[in-house]
């Protein structure tokens, strides 16, 4: 799940274990908190409107460069990967040419304040770049910004373009071009081109060749090193990934992710003592430098696994219990607690945890298999048989995995431990935004449209922190100002779903759809109908979702599940 991790990689709120959330800048003394913030930006690739195919890379390059330069200037910017994740939700291919209306819709869904788009032309010697800002709320298209220069001067051209873009959304933007430029990392065009070509390469050999060349040309630039670390990490080649992750400075915006991935690698290499040190340092650094109580469940989960593999069970149980409480929808945490209980031969506690995991994620056959195994071991044969029969109806005759343990090892259940390989920093970002958000809300109270956005953002913050009562109040406040706000209805539905109020959740999703149709919302509604065993209604909603977004993977998977579990239709 690189989803939320990747969404806000460019907001300059990430950093390493040694110096959390420091700025990446040529001027390390320039603190981002003191820089003027214009809002949240969502950047799309620039269109090739008149350059040869050899220069196609510039389109993605201008997107990435805009993300980096706005981030270096203290702005909150969604990453390239974050944009792709959102487009995937709607079944839109990366190469799709989007209308302004579609970009605006995606911007609304991602709570962006501004959408950045543009195009470029080149005759082989010079290049002209046009860029525009589309304000999301209230909707408005700001004047075009244009820059022309020689191709070798593309980096300088873009720096001026980015500066002018910020000036176009705030005519009183206080930084002159010289001050803005000092915030930017000096970067050569050759290395940047190699980096972008590496990201775009479809062939692994070409990708490695281009990224390594970029790293050679700019050895102090963290981006190629991080991309190489990610490449090897995804291939589960931790021995190759670790040296590249080690090149990411602790103060870099990707430092937390590089450190976290290094800890995961140490677990994969069965080096729990080193993994514990990494995750413990990361956890303490966040507590010390960001906010007391600002925990990330993925870090706690992996820290617990590292401790458990060293036989240190009490602190492992404490960390896992905290992770379970932070994220009430995730089944991995109670599942791992169940494994620890089995390792300590506490079958009653194991049963409780596996039952909770199965309740949180009814579609996970492994949760159910371990619940049945624990019931069998505890001598509860009748209950185990009933669970097995129910599982057969849900997953099919051979749907449950066969559990095999090596009783000769110290940790017979270790291979089943669920290591969290990806980090969701959204909740931590919201912890950081809290004080500033309160100030923004006070200012926004006089502006109904801005107040609605503020209430929704605050509600999401409270929801992520597990404070559902406060979250519900914020979403209701948003609906008082705008009764037809689709986002507020959708978020309120999620609160009701988490509380088990499925009828109320379905009603809120229907209200959300009345304001704005959405494949994602229809799929969520279908899942609720499925929980209520309303199979026909679930099928109708998921079919409508697929009609809206034919390539939407979640909707297609849900329809496949419905076909397998209830192929003939009917309410059952």
Can you describe this structure?
The chain is α/β, with parallel strands linked by helices and 572 residues long. Among the domains are: 25-184, Rossmann fold (3-Layer(aba) Sandwich); 328-418, Tetratricopeptide repeat domain (Serine Threonine Protein Phosphatase 5, Tetratricopeptide repeat); 426-565, Tetratricopeptide repeat domain (Serine Threonine Protein Phosphatase 5, Tetratricopeptide repeat, Alpha Horseshoe), CATH 1.25.40. 59% of the residues lie in helices and 6% in strands. The chain has 26 helices and 7 strands. The chain has helices spanning 3-7, 57-72, 80-89, 100-109, 154-169, 177-182, 189-200, 204-217, 222-234, 238-245, 255-268, 272-289, 297-309, 313-326, 332-343, 347-360, 365-377, 381-395, 426-444, 448-464, 468-481, 486-498, 502-515, 519-531, 535-548, 553-565; strands spanning 40-43, 47-50, 76-77, 114-122, 126-135, 140-141, 145-150. Strands 1, 2, 3, 4, 5, 6 and 7 form a 7-stranded mixed β-sheet that branches. A hairpin with a 4-residue loop joins strand 5 (126-135) and strand 6 (140-141). Helix 11 (255-268) packs parallel to helix 13 (297-309) and helix 20 runs antiparallel to helix 21 (468-481). The longest helix is centred in the last third of the chain and has 19 residues, at 426-444. It is globular and about 80 Å long. The two termini are 34 Å apart. The relative contact order is 0.07. Mean pLDDT is 84; it is low at 1-33 and 429-447.
């Amino acid at each position: 799940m690189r989803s939320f991790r990747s969404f806000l990689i460019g907001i300059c709120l990430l950093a390493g274990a040694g110096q959390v959330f420091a700025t990446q800048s040529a001027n390390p003394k320039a603190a981002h908190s003191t820089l003027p913030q214009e809002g949240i930006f969502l950047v799309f690739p620039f269109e090739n409107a008149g350059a040869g195919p050899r220069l196609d890379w510039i389109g993605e390059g201008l997107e990435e460069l805009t993300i980096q330069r706005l981030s270096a200037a203290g702005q909150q910017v969604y990453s390239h990967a974050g944009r792709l994740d959102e487009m995937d939700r709607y079944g839109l291919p990366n190469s799709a040419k989007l209308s302004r209306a579609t970009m605006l819709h995606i911007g609304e869904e991602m709570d962006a304040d501004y959408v950045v788009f543009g195009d470029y032309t080149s005759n082989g010697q010079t290049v002209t770049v046009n860029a525009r800002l589309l304000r999301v709320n209230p909707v408005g298209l700001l004047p075009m910004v244009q820059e022309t220069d020689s191709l070798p001067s593309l980096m300088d051209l873009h720096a001026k373009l980015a500066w002018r873009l910020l000036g176009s959304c705030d005519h009183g933007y206080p930084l002159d071009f010289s001050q803005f430029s000092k915030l930017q990392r000096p970067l050569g065009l050759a290395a940047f081109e190699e980096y972008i070509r590496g990201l775009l390469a479809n062939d692994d050999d070409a990708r490695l060749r281009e990224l390594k060349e970029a790293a050679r040309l700019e050895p102090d630039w963290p981006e190629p090193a991080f991309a190489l670390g990610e490449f090897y990490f995804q291939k589960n080649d931790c021995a190759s990934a670790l040296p590249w992750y080690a090149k990411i400075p602790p103060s870099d915006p990707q430092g937390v992710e590089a450190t976290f991935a290094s800890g995961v690698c140490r677990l994969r290499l069965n080096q729990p003592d080193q993994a514990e040190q990494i995750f413990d340092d990361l956890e303490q650094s966040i507590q010390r430098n960001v906010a007391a109580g600002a925990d990330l469940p993925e870090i706690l989960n992996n820290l617990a696994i590292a401790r458990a593999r060293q036989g240190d069970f009490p602190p492992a149980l404490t960390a896992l219990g905290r992770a379970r409480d932070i994220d009430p929808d995730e089944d991995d945490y109670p599942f791992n607690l169940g494994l620890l209980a089995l390792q300590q031969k506490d079958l009653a506690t194991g049963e409780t945890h596996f039952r909770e995991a199965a309740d949180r994620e009814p579609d996970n056959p492994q949760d159910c298999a371990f619940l049945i195994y624990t019931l069998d071991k505890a001598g509860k044969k009748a209950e185990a048989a009933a669970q097995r029969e129910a599982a057969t109806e849900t997953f099919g005759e051979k749907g449950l995995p066969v559990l095999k343990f090596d009783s000769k090892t110290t940790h017979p259940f270790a291979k089943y431990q669920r290591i969290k390989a990806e980090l969701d920093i959204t909740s931590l970002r919201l912890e950081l935004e809290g004080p500033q958000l309160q100030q923004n809300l006070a200012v926004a109270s006089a502006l109904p449209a801005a107040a609605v956005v503020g209430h929704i953002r605050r509600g999401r913050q409270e929801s992520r922190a597990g404070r559902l009562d406060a979250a519900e109040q914020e979403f209701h406040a948003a609906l008082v100002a705008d009764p037809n706000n689709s986002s507020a209805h959708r978020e309120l539905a999620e609160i009701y779903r988490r509380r088990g109020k499925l009828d109320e959740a379905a009603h809120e999703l229907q209200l959300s759809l009345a304001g704005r149709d959405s494949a994602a919302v229809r799929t969520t509604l279908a899942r609720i109908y499925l929980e209520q065993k309303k199979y026909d209604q679930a099928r109708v909603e998921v079919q409508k979702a697929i009609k809206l977004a034919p390539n939407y993977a979640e909707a297609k998977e849900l329809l496949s599940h419905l076909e397998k579990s209830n192929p003939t239709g009917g309410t059952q």
